Amino acid sequence: MTLTEFAWFNGEVQLQAAQVMSQPDSEELLSLDEIEAEFKVSRSTLHRRRQAGHIKPFGKVGDRRVYYRRCDIEELLKPRVIEDEK
User: Fold this and answer.
1) Helical pair 70-77 and 32-39, crossing angle rounded to 10 deg
2) Which of 14, 29, 71, 81 has CB atoms 3.0–4.6 Å from 67's, for a disulfide?
3) pLDDT tens for each residue of 26-83
4) Could you give the 3-state DSSP secondary structure of residue 39?
5) By the 8 A CB rule, do 66 and 60 touch?
6) In terms of Cα–Cα distance, which of 79, 66, 58 is closest to 34?
7) Does some domain include residue 5?
8) Under 8 Å between Cβ of 22 and 16
9) Is 82 among the domain residues?
10) How many domains does the structure of the chain reveal?
11) What pLDDT shows up at residue 83?
12) Is 66 within a domain?
């Protein structure tokens, strides 16, 4: 990677980070580390839920950092009522 390519990539990552972090409070974004700490949900559980289509990341910064909206995590973890089929 040349210095010019690195500068462009670094600028893109910073721009993406600023866009992700400037969301309104009602759509607070959480990193995987924050979700693990606050909700006691493992990365593997989130990965399985994402693969099954139950949750979708709100955004990515760079190649690896993924953010989820707090309201999506809370909805995912909300207890569900399963009705008996009789």
Assistant:
1) 40
2) 29
3) 578 999 999 999 999 999 999 999 999 999 988 877 777 889 999 999 999 888 777 7
4) helix
5) yes
6) 66
7) no
8) no
9) no
10) 1
11) 79
12) yes
Contact assessment for residue 52 and residue 74, using Cβ atoms and an 8 Å cutoff:
no
The token pair at 58 is 């709100």
Q: What is the pLDDT of residue 5?
A: 58
| Residues of the domain holding 30 | 17-77
Q: Which amino acid is at 72?
A: D
Whole-number Å distance between alpha carbons of 74 and 77: 5
| Per-residue pLDDT tens over the stretch 2-14 | 656 555 555 665 5
Q: Read off the amino acid at residue 36.
A: E
- Domain assignment present for 3: no
Q: What pLDDT score was predicted for residue 84? A: 74
The CATH number of residue 38's host domain is 1.10.1660
